[in-house]
Amino acid sequence: MRITAIHESVESIASDIQNAYINFSKMTCSVVAVVTDQLIDGKPVVGYGFNSNGRYNASGILKDRLIPRLLEADPGRLIDGDGYLDPHRAWDIMMTNEKPGGHGERSVAVGVLDMALWDALAKTQGIPLYQLLAERAGRQADSRVWVYAAGGYYYPGKDIVGLQDEFRQYQDLGYTVCKMKIGAADLSHDCDRIEAALKVVGEGNLCVDANGRFDLKTALAYAEALKQYRLFWYEEAGDPLDFKIQTALSEAYDLPTATGENLFSHQDARNLLRYGGMRPELDYLQFDCALSYGLVEYYRTLSVLSEYGWSSRRVVPHGGHQMSLHIAAGLGLGGNESYPGVFQPFGGFSDELTVIDSYVGLPTSPGLGLENKANFRTMLVSAFGDQLRI
Ligand code: MG
After folding, report:
1. Could you count the other beta carbons within 10 Å of the beta carbon of residue 359?
2. How far is the CA of 235 from the centre of ligand 1 (A)?
3. Which CATH number is associated with domain 3-126+374-388?
4. Which of 29, 38, 71, 116 sits between 20 and 30 A of 44, alpha carbons compared?
5. 30-54, pLDDT tens digit by residue?
6. Residue 200 contacts residue 167 (beta carbons within 8 Å)
7. Distance 3 CA to ligand 1 centre (A)
């Protein structure tokens, strides 16, 4: 098995939303198509990959460094002992001549290609990716994955009604647990919003996300005010790399916290566990493979977790995309984020899947099943239709 071509495109993943830090009006996304020489029904197997929301496209790194390295490599160095594409070997080739640390957008670029390589591998074997991962892990794949609805935006002028309407829509879609943004208003107004949200979702079903906005003092002031609400979790209070804030939070707030979506390597994850005061029996970790060097690196991150006494069930990845859904089912994570209706066509799951009581089933088609999502398929035709017979 060998790679015959890699196509790359930059697409919009813009949404008319904003959190405490950024708006998403100009958000872009890299998409790749890795074409192989394996034929199924007379057509070459093609793996697709993209990056998650929250970071912009990594086109420059893909075009200048990573794609040329894969295409110029001896094809024999990219396959495993059975002749299949080996994403682990490909990872080493992509990272040739890259210094450690300073992960930045490089981890995004690797994540995009890593996703496509796993998609191609599972398609070649004719099974969904979660099944391939479970078989390799020597376990039975989960038959469904817990998901929660992320959103809870600000609605200037109709903040309370808008928020409640949004969460009612998520409930109609089958979600029980919902997440809302905080930190873009003052504490008093955010408390009003939280109380309004709880009237819809009920105690124990609400997460809040500050998107790394708070300094130490504000993070602790919110923690004190939030205690009374018995939240599902309090997410990313301070800067993702400020482990002192996370530690102080763990000491002051005896309910679950969550963080990790902006940590992009197993070394960063390890530092969080070493120095962030996170509690394995209580807190949640949200590393997103599509932003953090892909599944090959995710295996290393999960290994670090295990080393520090964490169950993989405490991991609920950021991003709301199907790669994390497969990893969650195949490797036994705790769940997956979901963004109903936003970050399209990249967010969300296959069209045939529905959410029931905050759990979603798994696709049955080989690979990731991205092509089964109609608007994703439309994007693929637009991006690669000239090069590929999609
Ligand atoms: Mg978040």
Report:
1. 17
2. 6
3. 3.30.390.10
4. 29
5. 999 999 999 999 999 999 999 988 8
6. yes
7. 35
Q: What is the mean pLDDT of residues 220-235?
A: 98
Distance 335 CA to ligand 1 centre (A): 14
For the domain made up of 136-372, give the CATH fold. TIM Barrel (3.20.20)
**For 44-73, b where at least 16 C-beta lie within 10 A, e where not — what string?**
ebbbbbbbbbbbbbbbebbeebbbebbeeb
The domain limits of the chain are 3-126+374-388, 136-372
Q: Is 94 helix (H, G, I), strand (E, B) or coil?
A: helix
> Does the structure show a pLDDT above 90 at 373?
yes
Residue 248 Cα, ligand 1 centroid: separation in angstroms? Answer: 19
Per-residue pLDDT tens for 6-31? 999 999 888 777 777 888 888 899 99
The per-residue pLDDT for 342 is: 83
Q: Which member of 7, 179, 318, 373 is catalytic?
A: 318
Taking the centre of ligand 1 as the mean of its atom positions, its distance from the CA of residue 366, in whole angstroms, is 30
Supply the pLDDT for residue 296.
98
**3-class DSSP assignment, residue 354:** coil
Q: What is the mean pLDDT of residues 117-134?
A: 98
What's residue 158's pLDDT? Answer: 86
- From the candidates 7, 103, 179, 181, give the one annotated as an active-site residue: 181
Answer yes or no: 373 catalytic. no
The Å distance, Cα 337 to ligand 1 centre, comes to 9
Residue 133 has pLDDT above 90, yes or no: yes
Q: What's the distance, CA 221 to chain centroid?
A: 29
Distance, in Å, from the CA atom of 372 to the CA atom of 289, rounded to the nearest integer, reads 21
For residue 387, pLDDT over 90 is answered with no
CA 283 to ligand 1 centroid distance, Å: 14
Inter-residue contact 56 to 38 (CB < 8 Å): no
- Tokens 């080393």 label which residue? 307
Q: So what's the pLDDT on residue 68? A: 98
Neighbours of ion ligand 1 (CB under 5 A): 209
Question: Taking residues 293-301, what's their average pLDDT?
Answer: 98
> How many CA atoms lie within 13 Å of 262's alpha carbon, on the beta-carbon side?
16
